[in-house]
Amino acid sequence: QQTGVEIQRHSRSNGELKQQHEVLLSTLLLEQQLHSTATNQH
Asked: According to the lineage, what is the superkingdom (predicted)?
């Protein structure tokens, strides 16, 4: 049986992972946009 502290720690780590994932996704999208605009200009 989990204690409240363990549950809090687990949910917090999940939130951090989700945040990192969103940052990675947005970075990838930005790079794709930059790449597509660069190729369109040439």
From this structure: Eukaryota
- State the pTM of this model: 0.58
CA dihedral 4, 10, 12, 17 (to 10 degrees): -170
pLDDT in tens, 2-39: 788 887 887 888 889 999 999 999 999 999 999 888 88
CA distance readout (Å), 13 to 25, 29, 37: 18, 24, 36
